Amino acid sequence: MKFPGPLMHAMLLCALVLAPVACWAQDLNLVILLSDNTAPYLSFAKKLKDSLPASVQAIVLEYPGQLPSSALKADLIITAGMKATELAATQSSIPVLAVMIPKSSYERMLAQQSPQNPAPSISAIYLDQPWDRQLDFVRAALPDRIKIGLLYGEETHIDVARLHQDIAHRGGSLIARPIRSAKGLYPSLESVLKDSDVLLAIPDSAIYSSNNIRNILLTSYRYRIPLIGLSQSYVNAGALCAIFSTPEQLAEQASTTTNLFGQTKKLPGSKYPAAFSIAVNQQVAQSLGIELPSPEAIRNQMDKAKLKEHGR
């Protein structure tokens, strides 16, 4: 059967207009579970809700301690932070998308799951940046600082040998020290600072806790070794610079993942953040006698290095 030209045109136009809606043909009931009501989690929840289509029914819970019955009827739980992730993974069988969590903490939680009580279908968007992005950032921001200092705890599973190779491939060297107790933190910190050009912070709450960060910053400043932080707040507190993903950037990625889940009813594999931000503290740079590029210049240099690496 042939359709008249105008009718065919109208049908095609309708198909194009309705195409995005078709992806969300089946409504989703979504729970956004926050570890607490601090600003980063609230910003994440607001951006996520704003990014979702109207067909998705989303409610926000600020760490209730016990999942309410309404949450147990959801199609998907999106958690922000480890407290919320552990709650959802232990109190429900609903698929969970965990966001704003360190990769090491997520993997440790999965390893501790009992075979008798396996976790529900779960995936993650990590808080930390992939190693190659961090190393490219250090090289772009501080090309003359080739000795990278690193402190890591026993529960932070880092492939130190692989990291040595990756840094050596970029023309640098790694000075890494494990921290096995709270008493060993500052002796190890000073040992690393004596041999390093820069100290790279990682998401390890046993080391870079709110109780420790001020003294770590003061000690590194005394040794005139810049600290590369984990967020804008680190830079505001005195870190030289940082590469990180904002709650809003992570929320946009979570929205895209939710869209995919709405179509397939399956969660993709865990991923690092897709988008990232760069912050610099020029006042600290000036105090340390460091010529620090702007965030835009650092990003451009990272892009050039990536293109060169891929031979394009």
Please give the structural blueprint:
Layout: H1 5-23, E1 28-34, H2 39-51, E2 56-62, E3 76-80, H3 82-91, E4 96-101, H4 103-111, E5 122-126, H5 131-141, E6 147-153, H6 160-169, E7 173-179, H7 185-195, E8 198-200, H8 213-222, E9 227-229, H9 232-237, E10 241-244, H10 247-264, E11 277-280, H11 282-287, H12 295-309
Give an overview of the whole structure.
There is one protein chain. This protein is α/β, with parallel strands linked by helices and 312 residues long. It folds into two domains: 25-127 and 249-264, 3-Layer(aba) Sandwich (Rossmann fold), CATH 3.40.50; 131-244 and 281-309, 3-Layer(aba) Sandwich (Rossmann fold). Helix content is 44%, strand content 19%. It contains twelve helices and eleven strands. It has helices at 5-23, 39-51, 82-91, 103-111, 131-141, 160-169, 185-195, 213-222, 232-237, 247-264, 282-287, 295-309, and strands spanning 28-34, 56-62, 76-80, 96-101, 122-126, 147-153, 173-179, 198-200, 227-229, 241-244, 277-280. The strands form two sheets. A six-stranded mixed beta sheet has the order 7-6-8-9-10-11, with helices on both faces. The protein has a five-stranded parallel beta sheet with strand order 2-1-3-4-5, with helices on both faces. Strand 6 (147-153), helix 6 and strand 7 form a beta-alpha-beta unit. Helix 2 crosses helix 10 and helix 5 packs across helix 12. The protein is globular and about 55 Å long. It starts with a helix and ends with a helix. 34% of the residues are buried. The model is unreliable at 6-25 (pLDDT under 50).
